[in-house]
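Lab notebook, bench 4. Still working through the backlog of constructs that have no structural model yet. Next entry is a single chain of 123 residues. Request: give me the structure tokens for it.
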Amino acid sequence: MRTSRYTLAIMSLMLLILIEVGCSTTNPNPPPPRELPPILAQDELLRPHTKLGRIQVTREIYGILDYKLNPDILEWGYSVIRAEADKMGADAVILPEVTGATTTYIFIPSTEYRATGVAIKFK
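Model written out:
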């Protein structure tokens, strides 16, 4: 009887400590979001730069025949290129291109969107 009372007290104390310590390690003020690298036109490149690499992201949607690119798809393409360039540590993105191709597999229509660009770093 005595051991079960002590066991219950110890378990309750451990649970209380776990709750207190577990919540105290979270940061209530997350860092502000970083600015993604901008998309620049060729005539905006005034400073010397090095090419970090080519970025290509594809997205395939089944059941939809989309023969034209909606503004939402263009926005998706540009934002995903900028996000990937940020992961590479790039300062900007040049030569962005968002394309879509529609195909049909047996009876299922499919549209594949491809976003490409070149990540650059200024010297």
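Notes after review: The first strand starts at residue 39 and ends at 40. The chain is about 35% helix and 35% strand. Flag for follow-up if needed.
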